Amino acid sequence: MKTNRILPILLTCAVLGLAACGDEKPSTTAGPAATSASATPSSAAPSPSAAAVSDKELCTAAEKINKDMRAKLMTAVQSGGDLTKQTGAILTELGDRVTQLAGTAGDGKAATALKEFAAEAGKAGSAADPGTAADNPAMEKASKDINAACKTAGAPTTF
Questions:
Q1: How many CB atoms lie within 10 A of CB 51?
Q2: Signal peptide: which range, if any (predicted)?
Q3: How do the domains of the chain map onto residue ranges?
Q4: Which of 12, 27, 59, 107 is deepest in the core (most CB within 10 A)?
């Protein structure tokens, strides 16, 4: 029964996420997107002693991670299989990657919102029903905070 509830939620999230991407066409291959998205955060902060990345750089890298995770979600929905397990893994990876990225930044509004979002994504990823766990007011607030901070920084996001 829970698996049956997850599919409509995932499909809705995926469709809304893709609609928010604007005029960009979805990639037909997930491999190169993952490589470029994971390369961006590490190239934005080559070493811990380097200066913190700006909110604009942080938001640009976060949006790439977000798009990569949406692509993985779409692949999971289309491929079938255990959506609960796949959704949990995607949310956990999203939380880990956003946490790592936020660690390269200072204490700006975008970094704070990303840290809150990462914590919520991690909690949802480890829940028994990740799809339902991700649909909570704290994660929604963190998403809105990221979008607001990134819009102010000049690098809009669609979390």
A1: 8
A2: 1-19
A3: 2-153
A4: 59
Structure tokens at 30: 């997930």
Other C-beta atoms within 10 Å of 88: how many? 21
Backbone angles phi, psi at 75, to 5 degrees: -60, -40
pLDDT of the residue at 51: 64
pTM: 0.67
The DSSP string of the chain is: -HHHHHHHHHHHHHHHHHHHTTTPPPPS-HHHHHHHHHHHHHHH-SSTTSPPBPHHHHHHHHHHHHHHHHHHHHHHHHH-S-HHHHHHHHHHHHHHHHHHHHTTB-S-HHHHHHHHHHHHHHHHHHSSSHHHHHSSHHHHHHHHHHHHHHHHHT-----
Torsion 147-43-67-83 (CA) sign: negative
Cα angle value 84/90/93 (rounded, 5°): 140
